[in-house]
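Quick note —
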Amino acid sequence: MQFGIFTVGDVSTDPITGRTPTEHQRIKAMVAMAQKAEEVGLDVFATGEHHNPPFVLSSPTTLLGWIAARTEKLILSTATTLITTNDPVKIAEDYAMLQHLADGRVDLVMGRGNTGPVYPWFGQDIRQGINLAIENYALLHRLWREDVVDWEGRFRTPLQGFTSTPRPLDGVPPFVWHGSIRSPEIAEQAAYYGDGFFHNNIFWPKEHTRKLIDLYRERYAYYGHGSPEQAIVGLGGHVYMRHNSQDAVREFRPFFDHSPVMGGGVSMEEYMEQTPLTVGTPEQVIEKTLTFREHFGDYQRQLFIVDGGGVPQKAVLEQIDMLGEEVVPVLRKEFAKHRPADVPDAPTHASLRAARDARREPTAEPAA
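Predicted structure written out below.
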């Protein structure tokens, strides 16, 4: 099972100190987060894509390329890549290039985006969001698998005899997760291709998240990729830890109360009861995260948010330290203990290449 962190890259004011980092400081801070994640033994660092303030992450491949040059083992991913407003040809080119530079340590989470004005800024109509996600990914899927593509669709210029370059490393496209928090069409899309399904799981009650995951698992089996239990599922989470739970609550409450997405409604305690947010000790994070398996079945990737909302960088790096040193080792052991042998790990470049090579091996001739 893979564990890591993901960030949406907001530039927010610390409600305690009143300090707001510059864009430069925030970008450098995310690089430091990734390096710390590798240092403490986490598997994945993922970054979102936004094109509007207060977010600073408009160019994920630039950030991930910089991080790739400064890490050796960390899988670099997105959370998410906008399949609706990016040209699928450019996605194919950019992420194949990143895949080469990172020696295969790359996968993607596709998403539609949740900021309405972004669509017209890139010449698209938000009312076509689902259709764009379906058509653009169909083209991207072909561009990474076919050397020469003829294409005609509804939303972009036709292609004739087109070859995207560079070709995927070793002829193996980056693994794709389809991220969605509310759209059954995206769960269906992930199942159809046999790709992964990622639910960020940070704002929603488990009953809602489970509906989409159950749908994805059911349709994954319907399309012949394996049993529902073998479907590739990823989940998000949100944590703030101290070794004394009262210290964690006291420190995080101002960030919760001033958060534009969490604060202003129910109390932090009620929010924690209804969502995956855990504010407490490492032991409490372990206890709550282990319940995810009870709700959603065995799954392959668990990512946590540890920054954002103005949480100071010192505290962010301390969260990553605690994840790597105290939380993830226990979670690895506990999840592995109950995992059926036929439930696969999350695909990596090496495992996908090995599976491809196994399919190519010639059948031995029978002895005369």
